[in-house]
Amino acid sequence: MDAPTTTSADNGTSGGGAGWFTPHTQPETTPGSEREASEGNRLAGMRPVGRTTADTETDQQRENAGQPVVTAPATDPYVPAQRSTSSAPPPAPAAPQTAVPARAEQASPDAVLIRRTMAEVAPVADKVTSYFYALLFVRHPDLRSLFPAAMDTQRDRLLKALLTAAEHVDNTPVLVDYLQNLGRGHRKYGTRPEHYAAVGECLIGALSKYASGVWHPEMEAAWVRTYTTISQVMIDAAAADELRAPAWWYAEIVAHDLRTRDVAVLTVRPNQPYPFLAGQYASVETPWWPRIWRHYSFASAPRHDGLLTFHVKAVPAGWVSNALVHRSRPGDILRLGPPAGSMTVDHTTDSGLLCLGGGTGIAPIRALVEDVAEHGERRPVEVFYGARTDHDLYDIDTMLRLQQTHPWLSVRAIIDQHAHLQLPDAIRQYGPWSGYDAYLSGPPGMIRNGVDALRNVGIPSERIRHDSVEELVGAGD
Ligand SMILES: Cc1cc2nc3c(=O)[nH]c(=O)nc-3n(C[C@H](O)[C@H](O)[C@H](O)COP(=O)(O)OP(=O)(O)OC[C@H]3O[C@@H](n4cnc5c(N)ncnc54)[C@H](O)[C@@H]3O)c2cc1C
Ligand code: HEM
Predict the structure, then answer these.
(1) N or C: fewer beta carbons within 10 Å in the chain?
(2) pTM of this prediction?
(3) Domains of the chain
(4) Residues in domain FAD-binding FR-type (predicted)?
């Protein structure tokens, strides 16, 4: 391996007197936190996201323009159209990436230098990632146990998020919201404040190697300042969260209902109260794939008995989904990360809800319906439930029962095989939708097409909510 070119704590140019990447504040150790941290070393994982259509649009535009789309991936962010005002769990992170494209004339000197680096390393992003992890694990072998044994599809998420956050360092409110959520989510990995220095040094090491053509001391100083700021926000948020919430929850499977050959409805009982909002999701780790976390949406609004429900579809060769659908049984214990996601109902308005759910994407839609019912509102809710075949409409009976109970709810099943009609096309035949907020959940193709269709029928982007597109591979078909 090439000798790392990173700087050390002695010669850093970082501002804060605490030195290179050293957090300014250290969280106080709370009772039990040491045990929790050491348990946390066994596992890893984090929370998810959603994005606004504005993000999707910008990514596509960049892709079309042949530019690399360096975005914090699925696990990250989107800017919620309207924030829920509920005081319960924190909303999902806002996207630092393309939500608010920074204009060159407004960029700070550090942001300019950071973007210069990004442009240089973008064509070799994969090499930067490999080198970053190689540096991290060679220099800090103790950190290896925090990460999954196999780091294939997800390994670029950390670095992408870092680079994206750095790129948007000028967009403070959006960035802080995102990073706070990220910091809280990192507690379940067993991440501690001192780990941030290690990651920062290896980040600079990898960047300085692959951006060597443009690298100079001022650029390095810009990265140090930026990384220090980013990591401090995460560290502070994690420390604050430690005072009020566990790093993760254990949850025992109490019911496992195989609804189709590849879809199971799992009901779990968390070991302590789990606060969340309808429309959100959790990261889930199974005992069979330690440190591998995947996101699953809550299929019910919060229940009085505290139980949580997930709808899981086993995807071909999928690790976690197959374990949950085909292997797990009542009595098995999962781990849950904190709730995340902004696809929640805004109870301060009386707008209608236009909901598109494809495959297991019906799960959070059902939770939203229950949420509206619970609040006693009589706002119109129109659900379009899409599937390839009748057989795949595994939850239609429940949805129809809800429709019978609630006069403000309308449920329409759209079966591709019969009508040769895609879910998004169907909404064009109904409406008008001007007084509606739109919610989409399902496979990425459905969300992309759905967003286009919704915009075409006049729903503005800021009134369209959905979870992150990139990670939704298993959410239905
Ligand atoms: C916010 C959110 C909510 C979700 N909610 C649900 C839900 O309620 N129910 C549900 O069943 N699923 C849901 N998902 C999808 C879920 O998180 C997992 O992605 C899915 O279960 C597959 O995980 P796995 O470990 O089984 O598959 P993996 O082992 O990750 O991969 C399975 C196969 O898919 C490929 N693959 C993996 N990721 C991608 C990708 N991003 N793009 C293209 N190919 C890929 C792999 O190469 C592999 O061949 C949600 C995802 C997100 C982001
Ligand atoms: C500013 C610093 C950091 C940023 C922006 C960042 C960002 C991310 C992101 C976006 C993910 C994807 C996880 C998900 O959303 O589910 C991730 C995963 C992870 N991060 Fe970080 N991270 C940072 C620092 C650290 C540090 C200091 C550690 C500890 C060594 C760490 C350990 C992990 C682990 C173990 C994972 C899981 C990896 C996996 O699932 O493959 N991160 N990080």
Answers:
(1) N
(2) 0.78
(3) 33-242 (1.10.490.10), 249-336 (2.40.30.10), 352-474 (3.40.50.80)
(4) 246-346
